[in-house]
Amino acid sequence: MNAFHALLIPGLAIASAGLALGVLRARRAESPARRSRRGIALNMTLRSLLHDLQMHRGMASILLNGDNAFGARLQAKQADIQRALTTLADGKSCSDLLAPVRIEALTTSWSTLRGRVLKLSPAQSFAAHSTLIQEVLHLISDVAERSQLDAGSPVSASLSDMLWRRLPEAAEGIGKARAIGSGIAAAGQANGVERIRLRFLVTHIRSGLKAIQLAVGQHDGQLSLETRQAAAKAQAQTAQLLSVIEADLVEAERPGIDAERYFAAATEALEALYRVYDAASASLAQPSHAGDASGPSLDGAEARAA
Q: What is the rounded CA–CA span in Å between residue 146 and residue 98?
């Protein structure tokens, strides 16, 4: 080690310690209500990214199974995903809730997938998309943990678990069923593995929706009427989708629905569930709920959440 390194290493250690101390002081100075609202705003941006990645996976499944109708829509969705990642990378005010290095890793993974997606097999594309989506689910859960579980947070632990873990997991179940089912409909046939996966997803989605409906009922005093109504509609629309999956894809010898109609039906159910997410987030982000209206707006994401 030369003299330069001998001086540089202690200096870097001091600088790192100073940065960590600054973050800790800023966190202590921030009210739990304001921190909660920042987390809600950030998770709204992540929710948009999750939605777009799931759409891209389903469109890619149709294309890779021989139906070229979604080519232009796939390219448009790629642009949406890039915009969402850019928004996250620019969110300097939320770096304490979501480390920039994780956004960089996500962006790199997406760039790799985007460049080779149409060269993959349907199974490879599904797996690559699902790995990326799983990371976004982890980010949503981590942001919620860092922003909602402080002492004095206006959002209870059980409500946080429902909104930022259980609901996105149920949405991902629908997203996977959309991708697999769309591929089956585009190919005009299903193999045994695909049927087993769909059966498992139907059970998983039903279980998740039941838990969400129960949680919404338990927290009806904290959630808006719009949220409760959205939850009831999501339950009904998802039940219709699951009936289609069972009758037209799992039990039928050959698919009883075309790819575009199935994709639209699954998307309708998924959008209905995301309306629960959006309505609950908007309700919980209100200063009257959080009990702290102080402080300037953080960015466009917080404005959308509120």
A: 9
* Domain extents in the chain: 35-305
Determine the length of the chain.
306
Structure tokens at 79: 């642009």
Non-local (6+) Cβ contacts of 186 within 8 A are: 61, 62, 65, 66, 67, 259
77-116 per-position pLDDT tens digit: 999 999 999 999 987 768 899 999 999 999 999 999 999 9
- Per-residue pLDDT tens for 209-255? 999 999 999 988 889 999 999 999 999 999 999 999 999 999 999 99
| Cβ partners under 8 Å of residue 211, min gap 6 | 162, 166, 170
Q: Hey, how many other C-beta atoms are within 10 angstroms of the C-beta on 226? A: 15
Contact present, 31 and 292 (Cβ < 8 Å): yes
Q: Is 258 exposed, middle or buried (0-12, 13-18, 19+ CB in 10 A)?
A: middle
CA distances, 83 to each of 25, 48, 107 (Å): 32, 10, 11
Q: 35-305 belongs to which CATH class?
A: mainly alpha
Cβ–Cβ < 8 Å for 278, 254: no
303 backbone dihedrals φ, ψ, rounded to 5°: -60, -40
Q: Is 292 helix (H, G, I), strand (E, B) or coil?
A: coil
In this prediction the pTM is 0.84
